[in-house]
Amino acid sequence: MEIGSFIIQFALLLIVIMIVSRPFFEVPYRGVRSMDAVSFSKSERKKITVLITHQEQLAERENELENDYQLGKIPEDYYKYAIGIILEEKAEVMHWIEKLQNDAILKNGNELFHLEREEEKHIELMISEHRKKRNEKVIGFCSKCGKPVQKSDQFCARCGTQL
Fold first, then answer.
1. Is 103 within a domain?
2. Do 93 and 51 meet the contact criterion of CB atoms below 8 Å apart?
3. What burial letters (b/e) apply to 57-86, b meaning 16+ CB within 10 Å?
4. Which domain covers residue 123, as residue numbers?
5. Which residues sit opposite 123 in a β-bridge?
6. Residue of 121, 105, 122, 132 lying closest to 44 (CA atoms)
7. Per-residue pLDDT reduced to its tens digit, 100-117
8. Strands 138-141, 148-150: parallel, antiparallel or unpaired by DSSP?
9. How many CA atoms lie within 13 A of 131 on its CB side?
10. Which string of DSSP letters, residue by residue, matches 35-75?
11. Region of 146 on the Ramachandran plot (φ > 0 left; ψ -120 to 50 alpha; else beta)
12. 57 occurs within a structural domain
């Protein structure tokens, strides 16, 4: 009996620890869950959050209008006019959300591109320093791009053609 009560107490303790520690392991919601991989500035995040909130409000208005029309509370001509305005506004909000997201992706992509270019330049510099240390003579040129090649080269350093 003592072992059984000890196991039950231990299981309850584990459950309590899991429940209490759960908030420490969750990622906080930042406004746009699908775009968390993209780094937004604070102002961009705030704009997108406001636009998404507005988009949700428009969807609620659209649902209410649809319900009122189906129940016969509003005439058809008013329904068509009001739903047209709501849909135009929703399209505009979606356009701005997409524009902000694409701008952030483009900005992040350009930063990554510049980092990659810097890394490539560093590698090219290391290769040229290594070649200077080898003191080998140029024995010819690449048949594809015309870059000088050394005797020990198996591939062209510029275009990668096998020599």
1. yes
2. yes
3. ebeebbeebeeebeeeeeeeeebeebeeeb
4. 37-137
5. none
6. 105
7. 877 776 666 655 555 566
8. antiparallel
9. 16
10. GTTSPPPHHHHHHHHHHHHHHHHHHHHHHHHHHHHHTTSS-
11. left
12. yes
For 22-66, write each residue's pLDDT tens digit.
877 765 544 444 444 456 677 777 888 888 899 899 999 999 999
Task: With residue 149 as reference, give the H or E element that holds it.
Answer: strand 148-150
- 71 backbone dihedrals φ, ψ, rounded to 5°: -85, -5
Residues 107 and 123: beta-carbon distance below 8 Å: no
11 contact partners, CB below 8 Å, separation of at least 6: none
Tokens standing for 108?
Answer: 């992040």
> How far, in whole angstroms, is CA 42 from its chain's centroid?
16
The total of structural domains in the chain comes to: 1
Question: From the centroid of its chain, how far is CA 38?
Answer: 4
Distance CA 56, CA 50 (A): 10
Q: Would 81 be classed as within a structural domain?
A: yes
- Any domain includes 18: no
Q: What is the largest CA-CA distance in the chain?
A: 91
Distance CA 159, CA 117 (A): 16
